[in-house]
Specification:
heterodimer, A: Nucleotidyltransferase, domain 5, 27 strands, B: alpha/beta, 3 domains, 8-stranded parallel β-sheet, 7-stranded mixed β-sheet, about 35% helix, HDACs (chain B), histone deacetylase activity (chain B), His_deacetylse_dom (chain B), His_deacetylse_dom_sf (chain B), Histone deacetylase (chain B)
Chain lengths: ~575, ~525
């Protein structure tokens, strides 16, 4: 049996799945101050009568990191930056930065050595300023980590208690500022996140639950909870990721869908293209900083079931109706004070919840302000909200089509897709889905268990894994971006380095991915790995080829565990 | 795309065997038959490399019927509020002239690493755009491609040119304040007639951009400043007789470097004298010398000319580490040059020090265009003050600047005197060498000395490629030509079609935005 729990901002949802079918569900209010309580409460609600030994897997998604960052409850981190030539580091907006001398180039060749005296002085300053955490990030540190490692050594000698984060271990992708932000946030949240994980483990222990426990990442993949302490920031935005995987689980295979999760204040959108959730082309933005965290392309717009409807007087006697962006408590028909889209939906009989008399009352007030009939007014509200959401969906598709292309084949590839389904997930405003689908000329789909789709997503998500291999045969080394180690090519099966072929490079990537999957305890998914991109460049010096550069990117994409039985007739 | 059988037959009928005048008639009928959208789609398909040959013919013919109705140009938007720098980075990682050729896949690889690692694409001051394919008619607006456009403009060329057009549109719509097309393959050595590749170029990206913007947005006066180390002979040739396009090129002295031209006496055709300004630089010229030329000559002339748009053919091979040239320009120098020149749009040309220069030069240029601090951009081995200009070179430059300022000041008098020397036509003979493709071309160019406009141009071109000889004839009607010149030119085209000496005859009517190529062997005419 599988358990999935999504700790959201308003409610915590849980499901129990038996033999690939939803067996029971639960919904409890989230206590903002104590996410752990909410999580445990929801867990107990679905697992109460189940012998703990029958549980095979527990997966949860949580807003804990997102909340820590939003509320500023993070720890101070000293940033030791080795920027080298390029953008003036004075233009960065990172707090507590200390820039030091030293530089690597794009091939990982040292172009400027470190200054040991300066480093010791900087470390001393950091110690005296009371920092107990530091992140060391060098530009092109992923191509040669020796500067970061040397600074780490000096920290160990001069400031031994300091907890250290190294840029090349956080991400091997190109983008120094994003690597700084990701390292900084990882360091700033790790301890509190670790405490949270300990508490969860304790709670599960008390309930004799010995099943493996996973946490959902922003890219829709699961990560063993112990392992997740290494990567705390990857757990941000796991709520929308849970909803997206849930929608994937609840719709037919291989289709193109837009996932619409209408909440009280906001509506979250995500895309599934031909059965694959769309990842953002770049990492997520977190606490005002762009990061390297891989996440689904999710768009949040400031309109929801409880958005306040207002009528404004424009010049020349015309009137304009606005929706949101704020929420002033619940909808009028649910006991609130203002007219909302929910009242319009209730008035038109498109939803079941709410008091019909109060809905009429609310619409009447707005209709008289607007000078139109009540039915007309309610329709205008529903149409307006549906249009705002539809516009955002179209914009998402447009942005996806307009993503930059760096190769001839990418430009030639026709990126054109339109949704076949508009899938409503979450509890809110079901009546709107049909309107949006009509505007997008797609099928409205409200799957069974849509209100706990997020928890189902958590329960049935499979692990994801990426591996970016960079080989430089001239320098006789390779590196895996995710691991940060720089390894000599003599450890590989390559014979003559001048004659390495792309398929051999790809084979090395596959072998490394298998090993990495083993480390993560997810070997059984290694066969799902696919090559995302692979290319080779000749390094030419003068007029002869002196080496080759290979870049191979592989991934185990987001998907569903085989235990889940997808319903083809959702 | 689905083609009904009937339509296919129509299309084929329109094609081979008809005389051009009949073709014209067919075209008018066809226009009502085929939806513009469908025509557009066929164009995209036509540029795909995998399109089989047989299909290509049909598609080409279809395009004939897809001519858009003549549209009034839209006006460029006011750019005062625009804040961003538009950027297309198209490194064409899957295209090379040959594996060890300087123009190969790897050329912008380290530049990619540097600008991505710097996070430049994330900056709020930068807007990254997606490349697109230029259409065949965009190429035909500038070139006579032999034997046809497909042979000269392969897919990567169409994307490089198309990238310029995307940014040109963004600029005209005021989405961006300026733009940088960091693209390859380059184009500034490609001339009006394209028999093959010369100086790594097949089609001229800047010229295609200029004619596109003039047609679409109705702008007229444009300045092109070519800062590549090689003389921009292709761009110069294309606009040599156009008084509305100011072409300024500074480059390593032609006596010491390919293509061996760009001397100060190359000042433009009779009616455009002084609108071509060449500044040959002594080998070894450092930042100081180039910035001197910029301050004392280029900027004053630009100010005087008052162009609606300034384009920069931004070659990066003046760099002190470039393997193909001998100059001493630095990344800081490039950034400063860009900041001072402040072009509306820069288009990458050459630059082959792919590791030691390009990553730093491009970072510097992008930061400078976006108005950001570039003071920390420097090559690993660069030391301030490492290159000093020789006194003798400085004096040479002063003389060149003085001479060119004089030419610029007297340009209208020079035109008057020159025009008086010629009758109804001005003729000149030229030889053009294609280094990459080893072709020797002989040309006779004729300009109608029209009192009302710049006059139409004809080119009789004879190319020797080993034992293969090709002779073509092309007629070009300028966008702002008078109606008399246009009629005369079109008549000339009709007359040349039956001339036995030519394999291909071209009509480039920029006024009408209509482009024709006629194969005298197959008697087939293609209209773009």
């Amino acid at each position: 049996m599988l358990i999935g729990i999504d700790v959201g901002g308003t409610t915590t949802d849980a499901v129990l799945i038996r033999n690939g079918e939803v067996c029971s569900t639960a919904k409890v209010s989230t206590e903002p101050g104590n996410l752990l309580n909410s999580l445990v409460e929801a867990l107990d609600a679905v697992s109460r009568d189940i012998p703990p030994e029958q549980l095979e897997r527990v997966v949860f998604s949580t807003t804990v990191i997102t909340n820590l960052i939003a509320e500023g409850k993070t720890d101070r981190v000293a940033l030791v930056l080795i920027p080298g030539p390029g953008v003036n580091p004075a233009s960065y907006t990172f707090p507590d930065s200390f820039c030091i001398k030293g530089a690597m180039d794009y091939r990982g060749r040292e172009i400027d050595p470190l200054d040991e005296v300066e480093i010791r002085k900087t470390v001393g300053l950091i110690r005296e300023s009371g920092f107990s955490r530091a992140a060391i990030i060098s530009k092109f540190g992923q191509r040669n980590s020796s500067h970061e490692l040397r600074v780490e050594e000096i920290f160990r000698e001069d400031h031994p208690g300091c907890k250290l984060e190294l840029g090349h271990k956080v991400s091997g992708k190109l983008n120094f500022p994003r690597r700084i932000a990701t390292a900084m946030l990882a360091s700033a949240t790790r301890e509190r996140y670790q405490e949270f994980v300990e508490k969860i483990k304790k709670a599960l222990d008390e309930r004799n639950i010995r099943a493996p426990v996973y946490i959902l990442k922003a890219d829709g993949g699961t990560l063993p909870v112990e392992k997740s302490i290494e990567f705390p920031v990857e757990t941000i935005f796991s709520g929308p990721a849970a909803s997206t995987v849930g929608a994937l689980a609840l719709t037919p295979e291989g289709q193109t869908s837009v996932i619409v999760d209408i909440g009280g204040t906001t509506t979250d959108l995500a895309l599934i293209l031909s059965g694959k959730p769309l990842l953002a082309s770049k990492g997520a933005k977190l606490g005002g900083f762009l990061t390297h965290v891989r996440a689904f392309a999710v768009r949040s717009i400031a309109v929801g079931g409880d958005s306040v409807i207002r009528v404004k007087d424009l010049s020349l006697g015309t009137k304009q109706m606005t929706v949101g962006p704020d929420r002033a408590g619940p909808a009028y028909c649910m006991g609130g004070k203002e007219t909302t889209p929910t009242d319009a939906l209730k008035f038109l009989g498109l939803i079941e919840v709410g008091n019909p008399e109060r809905a009429s009352e609310a619409i009447k007030v707005t209709a008289s302000e607007l000078g139109k009939s009540e039915t007309e007014t309610a329709s205008l509200i529903v149409d307006g909200v549906a249009q705002m959401i539809t516009d955002a969906v179209n914009e998402m598709f447009f942005e996806w089509e307009q993503e930059p292309a760096y190769r001839v084949w990418e430009v030639l590839q026709e990126k054109k897709a339109r949704p076949e389904n508009v899938v409503g997930i979450g509890g809110g405003a079901k009546g709107l889905i049909a309107e949006i689908a009509k505007k997008l000329n797609a099928n409205p789909v409200i799957p069974e268990y849509a209100e706990v789709g997020n928890a189902i997503g958590a329960a049935v998500a499979r692990p994801t894994l990426t591996l970016n291999l960079h080989i430089d045969t001239e320098q006789k080394m390779y590196s895996v971006a995710e691991e940060g180690e720089i390894v000599s090519l003599s450890t590989t099966k390559f014979g003559n380095l001048n004659k390495v072929r792309l398929d051999e490079a790809e084979a090395l990537a596959a072998e490394l991915l298998r090993k990495r999957a083993e480390d993560f305890g997810i070997s059984k998914y290694a066969d799902e790995a696919e090559i995302v991109n692979s290319e080779v460049f000749n390094v030419v010096n003068g007029w002869y080829t002196s080496g080759k550069l290979f870049d191979v990117s592989m991934q185990i994409p987001a998907g569903l565990i085989p235990e889940w039985k997808r319903r083809e007739k959702a | 795309m689905k083609l009904g059988l009937g339509r296919l037959r129509d299309v084929l009928k329109t094609g081979s065997g008809t005389t051009p005048s009949e073709g014209e008639k067919e075209q008018a009928e066809g226009q009502s038959k085929i939806e513009p959208e469908e025509a557009r789609k066929t164009k995209i398909e036509g540029t795909k490399p995998e399109t089989p040959n047989g299909n290509e013919e049909i598609i080409m013919e279809l395009k004939k019927t897809g001519l858009e109705p003549k549209k009034e140009p839209s006006l460029p938007a006011d750019r005062t509020g625009a804040e961003k720098t538009g950027l297309i980075f198209f490194p064409a990682f899957d295209w090379a002239i040959s594996p060890t050729h300087p123009e190969r896949e790897e050329r912008l690889l380290y530049t990619r690493d540097q600008i991505f690692e710097e996070g430049l694409m994330d900056l709020p001051e930068i807007a990254e755009y997606k490349p697109r394919l230029a259409e065949y008619r965009d190429i035909a607006r500038v070139h006579f491609c032999v034997p046809d456009i497909k042979a000269q403009a392969t897919t990567p060329h169409l994307i490089a040119a198309g990238s310029c057009l995307v940014l040109g549109d963004a600029l005209m719509k005021a989405e961006v304040k300026n733009a940088f097309a960091l693209i390859r393959p380059p184009g500034h050595h490609a001339m009006t007639v394209a028999h093959g590749n010369r100086g790594f170029c097949n089609i001229n990206n800047e010229a295609i951009l200029v004619e596109y913007l003039r047609k679409k947005y109705g702008i007229r006066r444009i300045a092109i400043v070519d800062t590549d180390v090689h003389h921009g002979d292709g761009t110069q040739e294309i606009f040599y007789n156009d008084p509305d396009v100011l072409f300024i090129s500074f480059h390593q002295d032609g006596r010491t470097l390919y293509p061996g031209s760009g001397f100060i006496n190359e000042l433009g055709g009779p009616k455009a004298l002084g609108r071509t300004i060449n500044i040959p630089l002594p080998p070894g010229t450092p930042d100081e010398g180039i910035l001197y030329v910029l301050d004392s000559l280029v900027l004053p002339i630009l100010k005087d000319f008052e162009p609606e748009l300034v384009l920069n053919s931004a070659g990066q091979d003046n760099h002190y580490t470039d393997p193909l040239a001998n100059m001493r320009f630095s990344a800081q120098g490039y950034a400063k040059l860009n900041e001072k020149l402040a072009p509306d749009m820069a288009v990458l040309e050459g630059g082959y020090a792919i590791q030691s220069a390009l990553p730093y030069v491009n970072t510097g240029i992008i930061l400078a265009m976006a108005g950001l601090d570039y003071s920390c951009v420097k090559e690993p081995d660069f030391k301030p003050g490492m290159f000093v200009q020789a006194a003798r070179d400085r004096k040479t430059l002063e003389e060149v600047v003085a001479a060119q300022l004089e030419n610029w000041k007297n340009r209208d008098r020079l035109v008057e005197a020159e025009v008086a020397k010629h009758g109804d036509f001005y003729r000149r003979k030229k030889q053009i060498f294609y280094d990459t493709d080893m072709i020797q071309e002989f040309q006779e160019e004729t300009i109608r000395m029209c009192p009302d406009c710049q006059g139409y141009k004809t080119i009789d071109s004879h190319a020797h490629r080993g034992v293969d000889d090709t002779r073509i004839f092309g007629i070009s009607v300028p966008i702002y030509a008078c109606e008399k010149c246009q009629a005369e030119a079109r008549e000339e085209y009709r007359k040349r079609l039956i001339h036995p000496g030519y394999e291909y005859v071209y009509l480039q009517d920029k006024k009408q935005d209509e482009y024709r190529a006629y194969n005298t062997r197959t008697k087939k005419e293609t209209v773009y």
